[in-house]
Specification:
Elements (H helix, E strand, L loop, with lengths): L2 E6 L9 H9 L1 E9 H6 L4 H19 L5 E6 L2 H15 L3 E5 L4 H16 L3 E5 L21 H13 L37 H12 L5 H4 L12 H6 L4 H11 L4 H5 L2 H18 L21 H9 L5 H13 L4 H14 L4 H11 L5 H12 L14 H8 L4 H6 L16 H7 L8 H12 L1
Length: about 450
């Protein structure tokens, strides 16, 4: 009996999984997931993301087993070791083919290319698919045939491209006639906030359905961190327990196929930003080495370790920034508006290298995703594609007053300020800080802003 291996990576789902779908069409399927423990450390993946991945794998195994598809969870160290393990398993199973969905960061692309050469030399057929993007990578170009560097024209071209393709997700495969038997496994579970994110694709689809019930309010609510105005789906997208195609198809269904409403939806724009950052990474792989997208961007950073440590701990003396960082440290997630606030505070007001913040975010985030995280940090530091202009520096105070008017978010994560009135909580005076045990600001905002403008102009 011919057996094909489906090599699961950042695509931990049964539905809308092109590699799984096409492999199952050809015959019996065996799933393999190879966890590269040392590579995780090199990529700074958080304990929360690793734990969430493991538990989602267990959920995936249950779904696959119901289809008589085994899933072997195998331990490796590096990406090279992953290839060796995959080679061992093709021999062990007498597999004729390996199917997988592409990943786009540089190390992953190099690994996949090497795996293809190695296994092809062994007579193994290799089948690669796009399971991570709604539009095929490399298909959206400007009139000169070059990649877009600015989001708005990219989105316009993306929409036109997307209208012309089939967006319906791939169906889950049918039940196969294969004996699941004993499945290899090892435990690499770590702690994360399971009360906030239940693992697995079924939980992801349930969360998607719940969010679509309020997606019409997303545009107005998404910038208010004290309310549940965002989808909270990013951890599932990051590990592939949910696909962007599933999100878009569900959104289209929500609007009963109305294209004007679908393509004008604000949440859809956020999904397209995800595609944009991935395409940028594909077009300019040096970004995977933490180099600026814009080679002419000014890099004026200093080694301000004091400010960096205060920022990490949520002890900067700026309540909104501290609330944001404590949310990150306590939950493994941060509201998107606050990610911009926290990033600009660190790199433009404290002049700390954006790479320090980028790394720290990856070490904490349950939804850590290289393309989006790198893209966001470079946007905030004015070094990236369609980056914020150098003179855009978000004021921690004005952002706090505007988006947390009554201080509800600050009170939740900076409880020592809880008793302050709605005005003082945004900018406590020195006496209030002493009484509350809250630090003085690590920087003078006006002076720091002026210094950044002079250095960046």
């Amino acid at each position: 009996m011919t057996v094909s291996i489906v090599w699961f990576r950042q695509d931990l789902r049964v539905g809308d999984n092109p590699a799984l779908f096409h492999a199952a069409e050809k015959g019996s399927v065996v799933g393999i997931y190879v966890e590269a423990t040392e590579q995780r450390k090199k990529h700074h993946d958080s304990a929360a993301k690793i734990g969430f991945t493991y538990d989602s794998l267990i959920e995936l195994r249950s779904e696959l087993n119901n289809l008589n598809i085994p899933l072997h969870i195998v331990k490796a160290t590096t990406y090279d070791d992953q290839i060796d393990k995959l080679k061992e398993w093709t021999a062990k199973l007498s597999a004729a083919s390996v199917y997988f969905n592409n990943e786009y960061p540089l190390n992953e692309k190099n690994r996949d290319n090497k795996a293809e050469v190695t296994l092809t030399e062994c007579g193994i057929n290799f089948e690669r698919f796009n399971g991570d993007l709604a539009v095929e990578p490399g298909t959206i170009k400007n009139k000169q045939g070059k990649p877009y560097k600015v989001f708005t024209p990219y989105k316009k071209a993306w929409v036109e491209q997307h209208k012309s393709i089939q967006i319906e997700p791939y169906k889950a495969p049918g039940k196969q006639s294969y004996n699941v038997g004993k499945q290899e496994t090892f435990d690499f579970s770590m702690s994360y906030r399971g009360d906030l994110w239940q693992p697995g694709a079924k939980a992801a689809l349930g969360k998607l359905k719940a969010f679509l019930g309020k997606v019409d309010k997303y545009k107005a609510a998404r910038d208010i961190p004290s309310v549940a105005g965002t989808s909270l789906l990013s951890p599932y997208l990051a590990i592939g327990a949910l696909s962007v195609r599933q999100c878009i198809y569900a959104l289209r269904d929500h609007y009963s196929g109305d294209e004007e409403k679908l393509y004008g939806d604000k949440w859809l724009s956020e999904l397209v930003w995800r595609e944009f950052y991935r395409q940028i990474l594909i077009d300019k792989p040096t970004m995977a080495k933490h180099r600026p997208f814009n080679p002419d961007a000014k890099e004026i950073w200093v080694s301000n370790h004091r400010a960096f440590e205060a920022w990490k701990e949520g002890r900067t003396g700026f309540p909104m920034i501290d609330a944001a960082m404590r949310q990150l440290n306590q939950t493994g997630w941060m509201h998107n508006r606050l990610r911009m606030n926290a990033a600009m505070f660190l790199n433009k007001l404290c002049l700390v290298d954006w790479r320090w913040g980028e790394k720290y975010f990856m070490q904490q985030l349950i939804d850590g995703d290289f393309a989006s995280n790198n893209g966001g940090w470079q946007w905030c530091s004015s070094t990236g594609a369609d980056g914020a202009p150098y003179f855009r520096i978000m004021s921690p105070l004005s952002q706090s007053k505007r988006f947390d008017e009554k201080g509800g978010f600050i009170r939740k994560f900076v409880p020592e300020l809880e008793a302050l009135d709605n005005k003082s909580i945004h900018e406590p005076n020195s006496e209030q800080r002493k009484e509350c045990g809250y630090p003085e600001p690590v920087i003078n905002y006006k002076e720091s802003r002026q210094r950044a403008l002079e250095l960046l102009s």
